[in-house]
Design brief:
With 137 residues, the protein is mainly α. The chain contains 4 helices and 2 strands; from the N terminus they run E-E-H-H-H-H.
Amino acid sequence: MISVYPGADGHRAFPAQHAATMLSSYTMLLAARRLIANHHAVRARAPEELGEAAWADIDRLELLREHWALESPSDQPAFWITAYFQMLRQHEEMRATMISELPEAGAGGAFASLDIAELDEQIAAYRRRLVHWQRMA
């Protein structure tokens, strides 16, 4: 199986067995960039002084790390940790949107409240599974 690396200069193909190596490399690179950014932010006393480019670079590395985590075999904790983080993020965004639109729902608000309760249950289940895989890592 061939995996596609979403590089800045187009797409490069790598065999899927390299996913663990790529994941490890991006994890270390991301940790180093975060340390450097935090160091500079503390010295500058204001994170915005670090510059948009540095934070954009960290965001890009996070996306690449997530990509390679999801390309990893499903028996690897990094795969599940990333998958559950993404599902949690999506469900929490959906919940926030539903709550913000609840006052406009009028009579349909009761049904929306049931949907929010269901989302809360799913979010709690995802958090439990995420903790499980974090302990396995």
